Amino acid sequence: MIRFLMLFSLVLGMTFMGALASVFLKKASGSEDFFKMLCNVNLYLGGGLYLAASVLNIIVLRYLEYSVVLPLSSITYIWTMVLSYLLLKETITGRKAAGVLCIIAGAACVAL
Description:
Elements: H1 2-28, H2 34-38, H3 41-63, H4 66-72, H5 75-88, H6 94-111
Helix pairs in contact: 1-3, 1-5, 4-6, 5-6
């Protein structure tokens, strides 16, 4: 049970970091031109978070089957919607909420 909770925590951390990385890259994309984007700290924060999420993914893959880890990585889309609402002030529509429910149901079916 403890092993399961630890692995599930790693999956949650991995997916959260991936979603947060995308937020930083979205912010970096607002730079006026390519060279200003290269000087934007958000570019490096996003890249670093993607790297950390990838390392966690490799660790999780050592202990869980690929056919389980990959579907569970769809939890990233849930984090993305929440972070885009909180940090980027995007709206959550009924269709988006229904999609999240489908993702949760699918991830639960695969994980169990």
